[in-house]
Structure formats: C-alpha cells, structure tokens
C-alpha cells in the first residue's frame, strides 16, 4: 500500500511532520517522498503546483487521490488503514 503513496513535504513544517508521523505510526514505510526547501521557494515549483495549485505543502497522493491538507491526509490514512492501527475514528464501524 505505501509504495503507491507520494508525500511532498518541507522541512520545518509542523503540518508536514504531522503527516510523516502518521505514516510512520501506521507502519507505512516505503512511501515515496520528496523534500522541498521552503526558504528557497521550492514549494512553488511546477512539481508541487501540479499536485497543489496553491503551492502549499504537504501534498499527498495515493493512486488517484490527491490531498493537500495535513488533517485531511491523516483522516484519509486513518480510514484507509482501519482497523490495523486506529488513532482517531474509534467509533466508525468496519468497512464491508
């Protein structure tokens, strides 16, 4: 599952760290990642703009799903990996 995931992130960004921690805590190592230097404006590069027209990080892609908000990414990971490791949605019934 993790090999299909790509995370574009910037060092020093708590929202980016939030997503990286969620990926690691859910044992989803092996995802693709690329670090951008926010101080040099790399987050406005064509590669980032293609995933997030606002040019903000983190930007996350899993197969055809693209998400650009850290809380949304974490919720997506929570739902997609349930019931393996559950942090947020303990009241959601299992998917059938």
From TrEMBL:
This is GST N-terminal domain-containing protein. One of its GO terms (molecular function) is maleylacetoacetate isomerase activity. PROSITE patterns: GST_NTER. GO terms for biological process: glutathione metabolic process; L-phenylalanine catabolic process. Residues 3-85 form the GST N-terminal domain. One of its GO terms (cellular component) is mitochondrion. Gene3D superfamilies: Glutaredoxin (3.40.30.10).
